[in-house]
Structure formats: structure tokens, C-alpha cells
Amino acid sequence: MTPSARVQAAIEILDLVIAAARANGAPADRIVSDWFRARRFAGSKDRRAVRELVYRAVRSCGEVPVSGRAAMLRVACDDVELRALFDGTRHSPAVIAQGEPVADGGAAPDWLMQRLAKSGVGADQALSLLGRAPLDIRLNTLKGSEADLPEGGEKVAARNGWRYPPDTRIEATAAYESGAIEVQDAGSQLTCEVVAAQPGETVIDLCAGAGGKTLALAAAMDNRGRLVACDTDRARLSRLAPRAERAGALPIETVLLDPGREIEALGAFRAAADAVLIDAPCSGTGTWRRNPEARWRLTDKQVLRYAATQARLLDIAVDLVAPGGRLVFVTCSLLDAEGASQAEAFLARHPEWRAEAVDLPAGTPRGLGRRLSPFDDGTDGFFVARFQRL
Ligand SMILES: C[S@@+](CC[C@H](N)C(=O)[O-])C[C@H]1O[C@@H](n2cnc3c(N)ncnc32)[C@H](O)[C@@H]1O
Questions:
Q1: CA-CA distance, 125 to 123, in Å (whole number)?
Q2: Can you spell out the DSSP letters for 82-143?
Q3: Mind giving me the DSSP string for 237-255?
Q4: What integer pLDDT is reported at residue 238 of this predicted model?
Q5: 68 near 57, Cβ under 8 Å?
Q6: CA-wise closest residue to 8 among 63, 61, 53
Q7: Helices (H) and strands (E) in the chain — how many of each?
Q8: Looking at the predicted structure, is the pLDDT value of residue 274 above 90?
Q9: ipTM
């Protein structure tokens, strides 16, 4: 493909991404892969270049743009070479006309920028939520030691965390194949450390998904104790068992929950857990580096709905923790509605609990908990709070 044809391809893909964002359709990643699956003539360099252009455009438009072309023109505003590729030749984008619509820039829609500002995230910090995510791995101490790590890694704040250049083909390394390392953002690793899971304990991961954090808990427990992974999403939860096997993690019990009736499936665990981790569903504002189009899809109503679910999950966990046990609340969000305010409201509802200090080698205090962020810590954005049942 010529450089101009790549730009035209990116514009066509962006049109699909925009339509999907409006209709809550497929994620951008899948749209890009499907587009290339139907166009086998494109080589790997073309794919990489087009994908890069698509994501540059998605990152540079705060709101859903009117069209793929308007989004690409936003990028071209600051890139003379890109502008020159709008040359109207075969397979290329048409020459830029005077007064053509150009999408607005910015980090996020206005309503969301206001919510971020009220949560202590300024405009510059919001822009940094859209940078390129690094490649972090966790050394899986159940399967390997530092001697097994691929070369070129740099130690990060998480106890077993290492950072590699983003283009590293980590999945092709022997360490990855053997299960000695897991790809996991350093911030995510740090939130698991707050659980302080110990060998021999009973630990419940209430929103385990496919087990990203569950596997870190299993390693911290050194495969001794009882680890229970729950989720309402059958497909996600079913991906945990093969991952656990590869990681050499202890048999992990899985419990599929019925949304709204979670406690019915958890009766056997009443007051039984030394620790419960709630890695709650949330707006994901802390993960825009990986998923920048998420900000085009989010609505204020959804934020409120997530906050309501988080409060409900916190109240469910109250019944599961043994006296003296701990409850760790995590969201990958920088909005106080899903963080500091949520933690405060929890304590107001449950005076028989107390907030504990979140002791981490990274992050900054936020209300009763701690915030990790791309701008201060180079991690994905998280809020984490820890409570103890008195
Ligand atoms: C942030 S994700 C969890 C990610 C996972 N812990 C990890 O580290 O990979 C939130 C999870 O909560 C699950 N979820 C949503 N509603 C739930 C509910 N009512 N009870 C339990 N899990 C729920 C979602 O299916 C999703 O997998």
C-alpha cells in the first residue's frame, strides 16, 4: 500500500469505529482486525502503519468525530507530511477542501472533563491518560525466578514487576511460554499487593474476570490456602482455568454469579474470608491508554450505574469477610464517584468497619484510599482502598 492508501484505509476504518461507538458495537481492535482479514493483500507493515494512524486519530479526538476523515484531518492539523498525503490520487484521500469539517481535539467530552477536574485530574493530566501504555510483566514466583526473565526489562515499583519496551514480543519468550511471567500492568500488580494475601488464607476475588488479579493472589499465597474466583460473566470466568494451569496456580474455585442475586451463590462463604478483593466494574477511565475509544462510548448515566453496582458489591462483600478480615476495593477509574466518594460512602453505611492505610511504594493518597495514575506513576489509573472488619 502507498502511504496515501494507508491514510485512506485508516479513514475507512475510523468510519466503522465511529459507527460502532455510536451504536455500542464492536471494539476498535476487532474492527481493525476484521478489516484486514478481508484484505489479505495488506502486508504486516501496512497493518501496523494503518493501525497506528487509526489510534492516533482516536487519541486526538476528545468527542466522537463526525467522520473518519474529520478525525484524520484533526491529526493532519499538526502533521504537514500527513496533510500532503491527501493528494486525490487513486486509493488516496481527496485533496483537503477549504472549510472542511475537522474534528475537535481534547482529551474527552466536556461532561467527562468536568468530572475528571472535580476528581483532581486537570486537562494536562487527562491528556496523559491517552499516552502509549508500556509493557509490564509480573514474575510468577510459582513458576520462575529473576534468572528466567527475558533480557531488557527494568524493575518497577511492584514487588515482582518489570517493564519492557512496548514492542517487545514477550509472548514469544521462553519465560512467557513456561508461565514464569504474566503480562500485567504494574498498577494492577500493586493493587493486588494491597490485599496482602497470605499462604493458608481464604481469599475471595469477587470480580475475577479472566483472573488477571486472581493469579497474582495465588502467587502471593504460594499456592497454599483457599482461593475463590467469582464473576457474573461465564465466558470470562471460563478463561481462568487454562491460565491458572499455565501459571501453576493452586486449584482455584470458581463461582458463577447471577447479577442481582450474587449472595445466593456465596452462602457457603458467609464470614469465611480472610480477605475479599472487589476489582469492580467501572468506567475504565484509568485504562484509556489501552482503550482510547472507551471515552467516546461512556455516558454520565453509565458512570452512575457503575457507581451503584460498586456500592452493591461492597455491601455484598461485607457478609463474606470474617471478623478482623480485610476488604480491598479497586477500580481502574480516576473518577471520585468510583473511588474516594465510594469509599467514604461505604464507611458511612458500615460503621463496624474501618479504613486502613494503603501502604504502597507508588501512588498518592486520595480520600480514604490511594490513586495510581499514568501521570504520576506511569501505571494504568487505579483507585484502591482497604477496610478492616472490626
Ligand atoms: C474490572 S473487571 C475485573 C478484571 C479482573 N479482576 C482482572 O484483573 O483481570 C470487572 C469484572 O466484574 C464483573 N462483574 C460485573 N458485575 C458483577 C457482579 N455483580 N458480581 C461480580 N462480578 C461482576 C465483570 O464481568 C468483570 O469481569
A1: 5
A2: HHHT---STTSPPPPPTT------SSS-HHHHHHHHHTT--HHHHHHTTS---EEEEE-TTT
A3: HHTHHHHHHHHTPPPPEEE
A4: 97
A5: yes
A6: 53
A7: 17, 13
A8: yes
A9: 0.99
Q: Whose C-alpha lies nearest to ligand 1, atom 7?
A: 212
332 as an active site residue: the answer is yes
Q: Which three cell numbers stand for residue 390?
A: 472490626
- Classify strands 253-256 and 226-231 as parallel, antiparallel or unpaired: parallel
CA of 150 to the centre of ligand 1 (A): 31
Residues facing 331 on adjacent strands: 383
In single-letter form, the type of residue at position 316 comes to: I
Ligand 1 atom at minimal distance to the Cα of residue 188: 8
Residue 267: CB atoms within 10 A of its CB come to 8
**Long-range CB contacts for residues 168-171, cutoff 8 Å, separation at least 24:** 168/135, 170/135, 170/137
Strands 273-279 and 321-331: parallel
258 is in an annotated binding site: yes
- Name the 3-class secondary structure at 330: strand
Predicted pLDDT of residue 250 = 81
Angle between helices 212-220 and 240-247 (to 10 degrees): 40
* pLDDT, mean over the chain: 96
Work out whether the CA dihedral 274, 216, 160, 372 comes out positive or negative. Answer: negative
Can you tell me the distance from the alpha carbon of 45 to that of 59, in angstroms, rounded to the nearest whole number?
21
pLDDT at 42: 85
Section 367-376 average pLDDT: 98
Using DSSP's 3-state secondary structure scheme, residue 371 falls into strand
Task: Tell me, yes or no, if the pTM score tops 0.90.
Answer: yes
* 323 and 89 Cβ atoms separated by less than 8 Å: no
H/E segment holding residue 46: helix 44-60
